[in-house]
Amino acid sequence: MADPLLIGGVLIACFVAYNIGGSTTGPAFGPAVGADVLSKTTAGLLMGIAFFVGAFTIGRRVVDTLGTELVHDPNIFTLEASIIVLGFIGGALFLGNYA
């Protein structure tokens, strides 16, 4: 069975991803949706595709850079510390999106 802390971390990471999608889709496609050039569904679909392609192509390099070149002591990134940092990031994005 999976560690409950790991499951919590994955859920918080999904919460962060949800809020990143919300905070970037609006500025990227809001004008096109407002001008009736695209529907909200089409804008969401296009942004989802763009997120996937970006994560698969550029995101892997960013993760590699953060994991090997910027952080020289990986022991500082415990599961608990990572969950706390992601929680704060998700909370800040959530407040920025909905406040």
Short overview:
This protein is mainly α and 99 residues long.
Task: Write structural notes for this entry.
The protein is mostly helical. The protein has one domain (4-98). It has helices at residues 4-34, 40-70, 79-98. The longest helix has 31 residues, at 4-34. The chain starts with a helix and ends with a helix. The model has no long low-confidence stretch (mean pLDDT 89).
- State Rg: 16 Å
Structural class: mainly alpha
Helical segment count: 3
Beta-strand portion reads under 5%
Key phrases:
99 residues; mainly alpha; 3 helices; 0% strand; globular
List the helices and strands and how they pair.
Layout (H helix, E strand, L loop, with lengths): L3 H31 L5 H31 L8 H20 L1
Helix pairs in contact: 1-2, 1-3
